[in-house]
Q: What sequence folds into this?
């Protein structure tokens, strides 16, 4: 599903008055939720974590530019036993669901595959990023509310 298809789906959901829609296709799952009347209007999209290779298929127009910027970021040496959790998209990195809530993970946090580690906002959509590995967070490589690139390392994890 590409960006224009997602935007069309969001517009359709907003016009139809439906409060929640969930679509699953192969390795991609999208959930669009809208609030009831009287609440601030927003749309939230949750994308299932994707491997580095399928991500360009999800965002074909944005993939070439980040791929060019990624080598400069990935040039930092990484200990051989550590695994990087990388961004599946371009956007803004958030460590917590909102400013008043605690961060999803801290240095030293134990995580399991499927645990939420951060949120990436892309085109006003908030994508929950889940870990694909189990282990312990050794280092957080990005500051909260910072712009990030596709395939940019976000966390270093010592595998369990």
A:
């Amino acid at each position: 599903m590409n960006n224009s298809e997602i935007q069309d789906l969001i517009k359709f959901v907003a016009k139809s008055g439906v409060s929640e829609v969930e679509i699953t296709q192969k390795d991609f799952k999208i959930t669009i939720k809208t609030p009831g009347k009287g609440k601030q209007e927003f749309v939230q999209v949750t994308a299932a974590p994707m491997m580095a290779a399928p991500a360009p298929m999800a965002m074909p127009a944005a993939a070439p530019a980040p791929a060019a910027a990624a080598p400069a970021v990935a040039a930092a040496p990484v200990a051989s036993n550590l695994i990087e959790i990388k961004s599946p998209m371009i956007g803004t990195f958030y460590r917590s669901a909102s400013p008043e809530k605690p961060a999803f993970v801290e240095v030293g946090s134990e995580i399991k595959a499927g645990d939420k580690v951060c949120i990436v906002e892309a085109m006003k959509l908030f994508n929950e990023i889940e870990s694909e590995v189990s282990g312990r967070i050794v280092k957080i490589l990005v500051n909260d509310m910072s712009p990030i690139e596709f395939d940019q390392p976000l966390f270093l994890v010592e595998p369990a």
Notes: The domain at 3-159 is CATH 2.40.50.100 (OB fold (Dihydrolipoamide Acetyltransferase, E2P)).
